[in-house]
Each structure stands twice: as C-alpha cells, then as structure tokens.
C-alpha cells in the first residue's frame, strides 16, 4: 500500500509543478503536431503502430471523437455497436482479457470520458504476445494523456433520470386465493380459502384485516430516480513535461421511497493522473496513478426479492392505532411500546408465519454500505539505445493495483404485532394483539465480507525499428511479460508469464509479413510440460498501392491472412477445482464407513482421480482472413474478417480411453481415470463494419453498420450415449437441451394411451412430451437440442447527422437467432409460489382448446416445470440503445471570453425494444426493473 501512496504523491507533484510552465509557453509547432489525428497511431500489443499498417483481427474506436457525440456511462457500451467482432465476447470467446494502459485491470474502473481509444484485439496473431491468459481475445483501453500546449481545463456535468420499463404483474389477494383453491382441487385437495375470505379481500373495505399488498405500488416506488455527475480534466505541458489529471464524482439514487430506502445511493469519486517526462534526450518516463472510492448504501431490505415471492394476502405492513378499542388498554400499551410508531398512527403488522415484512424492514432493520477502494499506479521508462545501435530501444513497465471491499452497517431487530380481529355492530375492531420479536439496536457497527485483490504487472522489451532506403520497414521485439493476481479466499494466485518475440517487415507499406510468437510458462501443468511455443504468421497486401489499381474505385484495399497456434491454460480447470492447479496429480483419500479387518480399523481408501504427467496446454488453432479498405474517396469504408479456430485439448475424464475396471461403481465410488487433453471446440464466423460518409449541402451524414455472425460447435467429446440425438458433437456450445412438447393432455384416456411420463404424476392439463426413442417412456433420454441461448448474429447500426453546430447521433443493436427460456418463478408457478398474470390462461376442462398454460398445482410440478420447447421463445430483437442531440456553441459567440469551447447535449438511452417477445425481454423478476435513461449535460473548455 505504501508504494501506491508514494506513486500518487509523485504523480501529483510532477503534474502541478509543471502546470505554470505549460501555461506560459507558446510552442506553435508542437501544438500543431499535437492537433493531428490521434488515431493515426493505434495501440496494439506492447506498441503503437500507424493505423494504415494494421493487419487483420484488430479494430479500434476513437473514444475522443465518440464522446463528442455520444455520452455514455459505461466504458464498453459502444464497442459492440461501432466495430465488429464483439458481442459480450470476442469471436465467441467470453473470457477475454482487459488491458488498461498496458496493465491487466478492470474495464469498469475507467469511465468513457477518461479513454483515448479502445482497441479490440481478436486474432491469434494480435493477442499472442500477451501470453496464455489472453488467448481468447484482448480488449485494450488507452486512457488520455497530456499534450503540449497551454493549461487546458475541461468540465463535464450532466444529470438524468431513470424510468422503469415494466414491472412484473402479480395477481391480487382474491384472485390468488381463488386460483390456489383451484390448484388444490386439481391435486385432489380441499379448498384452502373460504368464499367469505375471498370476498372480503376483493372488496377492499378493510385492507388492514384483508390485505392486498402490492409491492409495486406507487406508495413505495418513485416514478423516476436521478443520476448526476461532474468531472473536471486538467491537461497541458511543455516539451519536457506533459500532464493530464481527471477527477469526478457521480451519485445515483434508487427507485424505492419507503422508509430508509429513500436514502439509498451509489456514489463514485475518483482521481486519475499521469505525467510524461523527457528526463534526457535519450530517456523518457511516464507515471500514472488512479484512486477510486465507490460506495453503495441501502436499507436492509430485499425489496425486489420479496416482491417476487411474498403473497399479497399474507401481510398488512401498517395497521392504524384507531382500530384498537379505547377500552383495550393492554393492546394499546403493547403497541405503544414499539419504537416504530409511524406518524403516530400506525404500527407494524405481522403474523406468526410472517413476523416481518419488507416495509417494516425498510424502516427498522438497519442499513448496509458496500465499500470499495481501488488504488493503481504504474510507471514506464523508454531508453533510446541508438548510440549503441540505431533504431534500438529498451522499454520497461511496472504497475500495481490494490482493491479492497467490505460491508459496514447496523442491523436491528424490531417488533411486529398480529391483531385478532372482531366485528361489533358491523365495524371491524381489534380484540387483542400478539407481539412477535422485540425492538433491539445493538449500536455496534458490523464489518463483514472483507476482501482484497492485489495485482502486479511487469514487462521489459527491446524494440528495433528501422526504415532502409525509404522502402524497407523493419521492426523486431523481444519481451518478457508477467502479471499475477492474489485474491482473498483463494490459495493460488492467478499468474501469466511468457516470453515474446515479434519480427515484422513491410515493403513500401504495400507488402507485409509478421511473425509473432510467445513462450508461456504455467505451473498448472506438470514439470516438463510447463513451457510451450506459440507461433503465429500474418501476411498482408495493400492492393490499392499497386499500379494496376491506380484508377480503381478503391482508395485503400488491404488483404490479410493469418494462422497461428496459441497455448493457453485458461481452460486448465475443472468444476471441482476452479483454480486448475494440480489437476495432473492423483487424488487419494479415505472413504466409506467400513474398514477391512486387516486395515487396523481405518476406513477404506478410494481414488478420486489418477495422475496424468503428460497433461499439456489447450491449443487455440486458428486461421483468419481479412479485407479492409475504402472506396470513392472514402465515401465507403469497410473492414471484414473471416475466422475459424479450434480450442483443442480441453480437459475431460474419458471413460472410453480406459478399461472399465479403472472405475468402481457402488459405495464408495472410486476411479483412477485422470484428466486428459481431449475435448475440441470449434468457432467459425465473420465480423464486419461498414461506414458510409456523405455531405449533402450543409449536412454531413455518416451511417455505420457493424456486426458478427459465428457458429460454435463441440467437435470432439467422450460420450457414452445410446441415441445419436443425445450427442453434443456437432451441436452448438451455447445451447438449450430439453424435451419437445406435444401440447396438453386433455383426458385421462390420452394419458393411459401415451408413453409413461416418469417426471411425477400426470393429469389432464399437464404437458405431453415426445418419445424420441420410442421406448414407451418419457425420461432424460428424450432430451434433444432445442436451440442456442446466445444470438449467433448481432449487428450494430449507428447514424451521425451534422448540421452547422448541431449533431444528432443514434444507435441500435439487432440480435437474431437466439432463444430464451421462460423458466423463472414468474412463469414456473408451483407449490405455494406467488401467482403472476400468466396463470390466467391456464388449462381447465372449460378452456382446454385455448389454454396456453398448464393446469395449476400445489406440487412441485416436476412434469411441467422442466426445460422444454414449451417454455422457449425467440429472443430476436432490435434495441434502440441511444439517441443524442448535441449543440456546440459557435466560436464567435465565445470570442473574447475565458471560455474556449462550450457544448450542450440531451440524450435518451435504452428507449425501445422491438420484438415479438418484448414483454419477456424487458421483464426483471427478483431484481430492480430495467430502465430508460434521459439525460442533459454540458461540456466546457477553459
């Protein structure tokens, strides 16, 4: 920790010590150089290169430009819309690595306005130098840095409101009771609620005696809640020192307004700073620091969780004191002893079955604050070794991150009161009161769930870069790279260590060749198998620079092809060993409750697995081809990449490779079959981005379409299956497996004639399933592949319209080919669960022809509530994710003032979903609702 504080002090001292120097210097030539397009240089693995020299498998976003027209709160919210290849994963691989300024860090600890550019490294050749844990892709974030020029201050401020899209719709007390009685009748049981009770709950005459508790009522929820943010950026510098500092704060409230929940908030305060120093004509250095204070305060109530489970007739949160007869002093004294009499008129209601309720929790159960503190520091030194060898550089980086989290707060218990109601002369009154619990405040603050995470990054490299005779461009790199993360509660540290080598050549920026390789080292593997070699080769050809293309429609046309093998240990893991260490070793332990007579009374010995000293890395074997260019004087620009890759050697315990006596079936079970490299997964697809730019009169138009289509399949598995349709081989990796339905059973005769349903007792109104293997019974052998749960095709569409000082930006995302499953408690209503509106169209003998929901039951519904295509739906959709209008104040208006620039914006986010199943897609059950966000803000430059 002390090193972090030293880094922060060092950074701040250097930045502010040179602020006045930058404010006084006027270096016209350097200022003009700083005003060139920032994306002429693109950050790739351990270096930056000219954008025109990018080979395939790399996409880049200019976040400085995007922030001028599309303000967002999430660092990665624009990635899947602006470039192709990202859909919450990179080319179908979800475990991508996030790099921030060359360090392994979290993307959520960098705000969009702090970012200079985001580079998406997709291909094997683009990520190989980062080592084995980057084998599934890298998302590289480069933050802003200081530029030569006068002191410059940017101030951003914005405020906005979240509004809920939808709420779950649950049945009221009377309707619930009626249908629950029906469910009991379906199960052959007597009614649970009398008609009189149902009538009283429906009438609403006394909601305290006959409650109809609606947790989504406006009594407890706001129509909207606020988020506000303010950020200041200070930058500038001289040729010797450049600096950048950003500091800001945001605060967000919540939708709840009951009790202490009105004080719920999330806040974040941060300071980020960096300094670039010219220590010597041959030596430059950088120092970066960041500190983030994140807090999330909330009353101790699981409001949304209970809203999905608490039946509406069970609890009346508040009961008026006026119902207690004046002569009933005992009852009155019991209630008045409570510390929580609301408004002097109400006391907490409760029952023996439900002695607490969420409203009372919100007032009296205490509070909790989640606290997160993150400190980051990194430094870099570049030494020009040209005096020894022209074009030779040595670069070294070191960074440390420390994050700690804990919960603090106060827990309290409180008394609730259950009234015994009576009726005198047609008027309800409370005859007596039973108290449950008591009011207790310990006064002791609780500190719990303390956790920490510590990460260090270190790398060193020699770079050699020369241009010979203006035609031959050479680059070579030798590097050593390592990072390690230690987390509380985990014995083993997450480690990445590798050597790297890169040799690149291009002739006249026309013909390209690149060889990049890494030598990883992993202690997850047995000795002798811990080192490996990961080679990649990439070739490129810019056809637009050929003489035969001089008069073509193409301004630029780069063709690339790449092939490589990356050895990775990300998939050296198992369900019972998340860290993945020592999986190559045998596990032998005592087991069973008995012992042999010659074993001295000791338990029997059992094998959990055997050893495999030949275990090796999982290999990403990949071929890619890319086409990038522009046409008609950049009227249209495009970037297309085809990829096909295999993850070869995933771990499995393969029964087919070993004799059956290696496994003991019975008690205690035992097996000496080890983990071996066996499984193969294949991903094939194409990503694309196409932009059209056109000026029509005073209007500049830009239309962008990007996206990805990919297919993922299991190529190799060890299977012991009786029927081919149960095989995972050739099926999508991200798939639903379940039964195929054939509608509802209508009569007992149909049930008797149908194959035997083995998932519990079946009655008319239950779901009928297809017997896939015709064996006369429905069981797990009748499961089939139903469809992918992810979307194989995703596309982002964005439009920019500029007219004078106005800019309109809109973007949306299209998803096709995926399927969702209605399998949460809102749809799977069973037992004593809360009833939602979907049960209204349940099966009954009278609605048999039109019903869309099975018969109601008070059992666990084992036959109906299981994965099948009955509950599946297409999640094809188009989301209108953002619209923003920006107005930039004309320079002539600001001339003569201290303000150098001023702009205002208004935007709306998550506005619209167009889909057949929109209601299901926008519905959250057991958590806060999805929201739209409307925002106003400004940016000033001084």
Automatic annotation (TrEMBL):
<protein>
    <submittedName>
        <fullName>SusC/RagA family TonB-linked outer membrane protein</fullName>
    </submittedName>
</protein>
<dbReference type="InterPro" id="IPR023996">
    <property type="entry name" value="TonB-dep_OMP_SusC/RagA"/>
</dbReference>
<keyword id="KW-0732">Signal</keyword>
<feature type="signal peptide">
    <location>
        <begin position="1"/>
        <end position="22"/>
    </location>
</feature>
<dbReference type="InterPro" id="IPR037066">
    <property type="entry name" value="Plug_dom_sf"/>
</dbReference>
């Amino acid at each position: 920790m002390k090193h972090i504080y030293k880094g922060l002090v060092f950074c701040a001292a250097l930045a502010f010590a040179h602020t006045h120097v930058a404010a006084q210097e006027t270096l016209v030539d350097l200022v003009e150089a700083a005003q060139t397009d920032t994306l002429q240089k693109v950050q790739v693995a351990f270096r930056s290169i000219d954008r025109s020299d990018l080979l395939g498998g790399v996409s880049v976003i200019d976040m400085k430009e995007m922030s001028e027209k599309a303000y967002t709160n999430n660092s990665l919210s624009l990635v899947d819309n602006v470039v192709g290849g990202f859909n919450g994963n990179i080319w179908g691989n979800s475990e991508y690595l996030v790099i921030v300024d060359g360090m392994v860090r979290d993307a959520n600890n960098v705000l969009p306005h702090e970012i200079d550019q985001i580079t998406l490294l997709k291909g094997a050749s683009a990520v190989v130098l980062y080592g084995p844990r980057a084998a599934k892709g890298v998302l590289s974030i480069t933050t802003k840095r200081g530029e030569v020029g006068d002191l410059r201050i940017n101030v951003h401020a914005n405020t906005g409101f979240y509004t809920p899209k939808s709420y779950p719709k649950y049945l009221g007390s009377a309707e619930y009771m009626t249908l629950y009685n029906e469910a009991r009748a379906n199960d052959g049981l007597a009614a649970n609620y009398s008609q009189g009770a149902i009538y009283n709950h429906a009438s609403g005459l006394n909601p305290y005696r006959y409650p109809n508790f609606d947790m989504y009522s406006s009594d407890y929820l706001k129509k909207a809640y606020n988020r506000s943010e303010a950020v200041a950026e200070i930058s500038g510098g001289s040729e010797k020192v450049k600096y950048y500092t950003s500091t800001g704060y945001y605060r967000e409230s919540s939708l709840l307004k009951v009790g202490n929940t009105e004080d719920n908030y999330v806040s974040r305060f941060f300071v980020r700073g960096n300094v670039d120093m010219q220590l010597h004509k041959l030596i430059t250095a950088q120092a970066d620091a960041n500190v983030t204070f994140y807090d999330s305060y909330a009353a101790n109530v699981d409001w949304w969780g209970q809203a999905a489970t608490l039946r509406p007739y069970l609890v009346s949160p508040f009961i008026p004191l006026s119902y207690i007869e004046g002569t009933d002093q005992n009852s009155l004294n019991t209630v008045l002893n409570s510390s929580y009499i609301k408004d002097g008129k109400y006391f907490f209601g409760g029952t023996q079955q439900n002695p607490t309720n969420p409203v009372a929790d919100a007032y009296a159960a205490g509070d909790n604050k989640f606290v997160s503190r993150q400190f980051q520091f990194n430094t870099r030194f570049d030494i020009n070794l040209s005096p020894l060898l022209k074009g030779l550089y040595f670069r070294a980086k070191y960074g440390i991150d420390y994050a700690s989290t804990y919960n603090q707060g106060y827990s309290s218990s409180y008394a609730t009161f259950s009234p015994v109601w009576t009726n005198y002369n047609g008027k309800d009154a409370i005859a007596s009161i039973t108290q449950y619990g008591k009011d207790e405040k310990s006064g002791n603050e609780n500190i719990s769930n303390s956790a920490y995470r510590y990460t260090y990054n270190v790398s060193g490299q020699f770079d050699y870069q020369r241009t010979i005779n203006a035609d031959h461009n050479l680059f070579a790199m030798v590097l050593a790279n390592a990072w390690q993360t230690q987390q509380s509660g985990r014995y083993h540290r997450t480690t990445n260590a590798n050597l790297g080598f890169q040799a690149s050549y291009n002739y006249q920026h026309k013909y390209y060749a690149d060889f990049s390789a890494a030598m990883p080292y992993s202690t997850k593997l047995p000795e002798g198998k811990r080192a490996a070699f990961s080679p990649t080769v990439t070739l490129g050809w810019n056809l637009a620079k050929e003489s035969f293309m001089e008069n073509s429609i193409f301004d630029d046309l780069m063709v690339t092809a790449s092939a490589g093998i990356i050895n990775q240990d990300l998939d050296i893991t198992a369900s019972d060993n998340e860290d993945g260490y020592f999986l190559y070793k045998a596990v032998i332990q005592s087991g069973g409750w008995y012992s042999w007579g010659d074993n001295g009374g000791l338990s029997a010995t059992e094998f959990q697995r055997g050893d495999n000293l030949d275990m090796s890395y999982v290999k990403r074997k990949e071929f890619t081809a890319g086409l990038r260019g522009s046409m008609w004087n950049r009227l249209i620009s495009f970037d297309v990449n085809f990829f096909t890759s295999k993850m070869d050697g995933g771990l499995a315990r393969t029964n087919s490779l070993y004799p059956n006596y290696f496994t003991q079936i019975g008690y205690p079970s035992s097996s000496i079959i080890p983990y071996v490299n066996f499984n193969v997964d294949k991903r094939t697809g194409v990503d694309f981005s196409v932009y059209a730019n056109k000026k029509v009169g005073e209007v500049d138009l830009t239309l962008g379409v990007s996206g990805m289509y990919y297919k993922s399949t299991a190529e190799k598995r060890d299977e012991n299956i009786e029927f081919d349709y149960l095989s995972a081989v050739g099926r999508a990796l991200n798939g639903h497996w379940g039964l195929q339905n054939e509608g509802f059973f209508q009569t007992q005769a149909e049930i008797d004639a149908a194959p035997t349903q083995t998932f519990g007792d079946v009655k008319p109104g239950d779901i009928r399933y297809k017997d896939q293997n015709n064996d006369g019974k429905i069981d797990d052998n009748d499961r089939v592949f139903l469809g992918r749960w992810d979307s194989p095709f995703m596309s982002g569409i964005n439009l920019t319209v500029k007219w004078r000082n106005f800019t309109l930006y809109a973007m949306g995302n299209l998803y096709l080919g995926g399927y969702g499953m209605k399998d949460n408690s809102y749809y799977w209503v069973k037992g004593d669960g809360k009833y939602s509106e979907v049960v209204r169209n349940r099966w009954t003998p009278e609605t048999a022809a039109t019903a869309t929901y099975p018969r109601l039951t008070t059992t666990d519904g084992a036959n109906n509530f299981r994965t099948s295509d009955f509950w599946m739906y297409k999640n094809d959709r188009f989301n209108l994710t953002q619209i923003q209008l920006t107005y930039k104040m004309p320079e002539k208006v600001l001339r003569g003032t201290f303000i150098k620039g001023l702009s205002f914006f208004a935007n709306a986010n998550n506005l619209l979903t167009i889909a057949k199943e929109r209601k299901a897609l926008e519905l959250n059950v057991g958590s806060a609702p999805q929201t739209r966000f409307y925002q106003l803000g400004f940016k000033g430059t001084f």
